[in-house]
C-alpha cells in the first residue's frame, strides 16, 4: 500500500490525487547528498462555487449584449446620419452616441462605493441612453419600419439594464463615518499634490526672473519689500518683522505625521550679470570682455565654463556698438 492510499481522508470530502516533492538526504561516510523525490498525495477539492460561476456567466453575457448593442446602434445612427454627412463621419457620430452612456457606466462603476458621487453619472447615463434609443427608433421610422426601430432601441435599454444590475450587485455603500474618513484622506492627498505642483511652478518662475530680470526685477523687489514694511503698525516694524518668503503649511498635516520641508523662494543680494555689465560699460565704454568677466566674478557670480560667452553676449545686448569694435 503506497503513501497516497495511507493518507487519511475525511468522509464526504472530495479528493484528487496530485504529485508532490520532498527532499531526501542520503549520508555515506559522513557526506550528505540531498535529492528531490516525487510522491503521490490526496488533496481536498473545494466545493464548486455556483454563485461565482453564475456571476461570471452573467458578466460575460452582459459584455456580449453590450458589444451587440454598440455595433447595432453605431450602424443605425450611422445609416441615419450618412444621408447628410459622409459615411465615415456618420458612423463615427453613431459610435459617439453609444460611447456616451458607456462612459457614464464606467464612471458609475468607479463610484460604486459612493452613491452620491455615482448619482450624476447615473442621470447622465440614462439621458445618453434616451438619445441613443431615439436615434435608433428614428432610423427605423425613416425606413418605414417603426417596429424594427423600436426593437433595435430596446437592445440598448437591455444592455444598460444588465449593467445597472451588475453594478448594483458589486456596489458596497460605505457607512457615513467610513465614507467621511475616505473622503478626508483623498482630500489630503489631492491638496498635497496640488500645493507641491504650485510651489514647483512658483520656484521655477522666481528662478527664471532672478536670472533674466536684471536691475528692474531687483528694483521691483525692493519696492514691494518697502511697501510691506511701511504697511505694518509701528510696533511691528522691528528687525524680526522683516519680509521673508512665506512657507505655506503642508496640506493635511496630522498629529503623528512627519512634516515634509516646503521649498521656499530665496532672495539673491548680488546684482545680475546684465546690471554689472551695464554699470561697467557706463564707466568705461572701451572695457574689454576679459575685464567684464573679472567684474562679474568680483560681484559674487560663480565661475562656470560658459561665463565668458554669457558676458560677451550680454555686453553686445547692452552696447550694440561693441560688435563693430
What does this structure look like?
The structure is a single chain. A hairpin with a 2-residue loop joins strand 1 and strand 2. This protein has a two-stranded antiparallel sheet. The chain contains ten helices and two strands. The protein is flat. It has 325 residues and is mainly alpha-helical. Mean pLDDT is 80; it is low at 236-260 and 262-267.
Main pleated-sheet profile: 2 strands, antiparallel
Strand residues, percent: 5-15%
The residue ranges in which pLDDT falls below 50 over 5 or more consecutive positions are 236-260, 262-267
Q: Helicity level, as a percent range?
A: 55-70%
Keywords:
9% strand, 325 residues, mainly alpha, 62% helix, two-stranded antiparallel ribbon
Task: Give a quick precis of the structure.
This protein is mainly α.
Write the layout of secondary structure elements.
Blueprint: H1 3-6, E1 15-28, E2 31-44, H2 50-81, H3 87-110, H4 115-142, H5 146-170, H6 176-212, H7 214-230, H8 273-283, H9 289-298, H10 307-318
Antiparallel strand pairs: 1-2
Helix pairs in contact: 2-3, 2-4, 2-5, 3-4, 3-5, 4-5, 8-10, 9-10
Amino acid at each position: 500500500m503506497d503513501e497516497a492510499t495511507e493518507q487519511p481522508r475525511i468522509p464526504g470530502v472530495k479528493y484528487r490525487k496530485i504529485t508532490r516533492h520532498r527532499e531526501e538526504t542520503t549520508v555515506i561516510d559522513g557526506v550528505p547528498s540531498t535529492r528531490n523525490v516525487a510522491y503521490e498525495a490526496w488533496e481536498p477539492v473545494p466545493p464548486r462555487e455556483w454563485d461565482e460561476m453564475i456571476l461570471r456567466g452573467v458578466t460575460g453575457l452582459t459584455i456580449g449584449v453590450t458589444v451587440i448593442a454598440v455595433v447595432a446602434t453605431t450602424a443605425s445612427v450611422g445609416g441615419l446620419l450618412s444621408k447628410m454627412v459622409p459615411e465615415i463621419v456618420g458612423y463615427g457620430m453613431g459610435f459617439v452616441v453609444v460611447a456616451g452612456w458607456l462612459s457614464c457606466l464606467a464612471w458609475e462603476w468607479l463610484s460604486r462605493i459612493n452613491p452620491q458621487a455615482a448619482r450624476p453619472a447615473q442621470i447622465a447615463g440614462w439621458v445618453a441612453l434616451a438619445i441613443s434609443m431615439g436615434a435608433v427608433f428614428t432610423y427605423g421610422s425613416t425606413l418605414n419600419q417603426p417596429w424594427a426601430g423600436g426593437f433595435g432601441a430596446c437592445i440598448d435599454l437591455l444592455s444598460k439594464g444588465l449593467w445597472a444590475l451588475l453594478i448594483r450587485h458589486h456596489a458596497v455603500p460605505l457607512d457615513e463615518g467610513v465614507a467621511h474618513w475616505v473622503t478626508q484622506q483623498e482630500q489630503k492627498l489631492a491638496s498635497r499634490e496640488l500645493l507641491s505642483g504650485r510651489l514647483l511652478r512658483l520656484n521655477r518662475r522666481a528662478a527664471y526672473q532672478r536670472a533674466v530680470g536684471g536691475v528692474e526685477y531687483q528694483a521691483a523687489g525692493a519696492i514691494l519689500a518697502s511697501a510691506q514694511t511701511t504697511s505694518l503698525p509701528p510696533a511691528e516694524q522691528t528687525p524680526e518683522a522683516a519680509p521673508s518668503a512665506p512657507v505655506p503649511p503642508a496640506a493635511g498635516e496630522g498629529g503623528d505625521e512627519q512634516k515634509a520641508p516646503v521649498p521656499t523662494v530665496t532672495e539673491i543680494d548680488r546684482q545680475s550679470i546684465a546690471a554689472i555689465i551695464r554699470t561697467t560699460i557706463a564707466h568705461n565704454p572701451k572695457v574689454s570682455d576679459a575685464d567684464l568677466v573679472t567684474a562679474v566674478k568680483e560681484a559674487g557670480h560663480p565661475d562656470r565654463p560658459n561665463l565668458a560667452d554669457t558676458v560677451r553676449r550680454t555686453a553686445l545686448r547692452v552696447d550694440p556698438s561693441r560688435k563693430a569694435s
